[in-house]
Amino acid sequence: METLLQQIVNGLVVGSVYALVALGYTMVYGILGLINFAHGEVVMIGALTALQTLLILMGVAPDMAPLLKLAIAVLVAMPVCMILGFLMERLAYRRLRGAPRLAPLITAIGMSFLLQTLAMIIWGRNYHTFPQLISTAPMQPIPGVFVTPVQVAIVIVSALVMAGLILLVTKTRLGRAMRATAENHRVAALMGVDTNAIIALTFVIGAGLAAVAGVMFASNYGIAHYAMGFMPGLKAFTAAVLGGIGNLGGAMLGGIVLGLVEAVGAGYIETMTFGFLNSSYQDIFAFVILGIVLIFRPTGLLGERVSDRA
């Protein structure tokens, strides 16, 4: 029982990160019908930008409070990723809106490789240690179950950010414009909505969420490197499909469910395969789930509700 509870805790933490990244996928898909496979690299850029900011702060102001350093790093990483998201939409995707679906898909994959290469040139190929500014000393709220303050912070911040996004989309004029653009670009434009600006803002918001997710991911594992966004990006895409791509609630649910399945599966995979596989093969669960969902329920757990896909 202790093993199960521990893996549930781990799954909630990882699932929270997947959910934040999945929201970026599902928002862009809801607006454009485009799968932005470069979104995982935005996560990586956010983590490495935050790392660079922290290194500068440690050299300039070594006595600054750790949480203040982390907050500044996040506030620097978010605008960098938002600008990157805007440039991706403006330079790579805008001219392909009327093109066959394969063209933007290939472009997205090309953007992913481009961002990885640029990050490798800037930060090198080596793994970088991400400073542990929030305590990693384990707490034991339940006998045999350990939780660190970093994990608690990740879950709380993720919940707050996701709640804020839901309020933005459902309660503000910008959210109404996003839903109208997702419903029908041409009709929204006739009603006075600047659809180009709304689409660009969707990329910007998704990139901001990716920056926060990147800092969380690096803080949880204590490392950052140029290829760190690829696998979380694929898993977040799986989470978006699992929940119902184009559906905000579905993306959140898919991220949490995928994190739980992956973590619990990693704890018991050796037993299930009679020692043939171990926990290092935990990635297999994400892609098994993706295959099952695409075959038996391609609309995902919550389906694709067109009226509030944005």
Structure report:
- The chain has one domain (2-129, 146-306): ABC transporter involved in vitamin B12 uptake, BtuC.
- 72% of the residues lie in helices and 4% in strands.
- The protein contains eleven helices and four strands, in the order H-H-H-H-E-E-E-H-H-H-H-E-H-H-H.
- Strands 1-4 form a two-stranded antiparallel ribbon.
- Helix 1 packs across helix 9 (230-243) and helix 10 (248-272) crosses helix 11.
- It is found in: Cell membrane.
- This is Branched-chain amino acid ABC transporter permease.
Mean pLDDT score: 89
- Given as residue ranges, the uncertain stretches (5+ residues, pLDDT < 50) are 305-310
Count of helical regions: 11
Q: Helix-strand pattern, N to C?
A: HHHHEEEHHHHEHHH
Count of DSSP strands: 4
GO biological process, one term: D-alanine transmembrane transport
Organism: Denitromonas halophila
Pfam families: BPD_transp_2 (PF02653)
Family: Belongs to the binding-protein-dependent transport system permease family. LivHM subfamily.
Brief characterization of the structure:
This is Branched-chain amino acid ABC transporter permease. The protein has 310 residues and is mainly alpha-helical.
Name its key features.
310 residues; mainly alpha; two-stranded antiparallel sheet; 11 helices; disordered C terminus
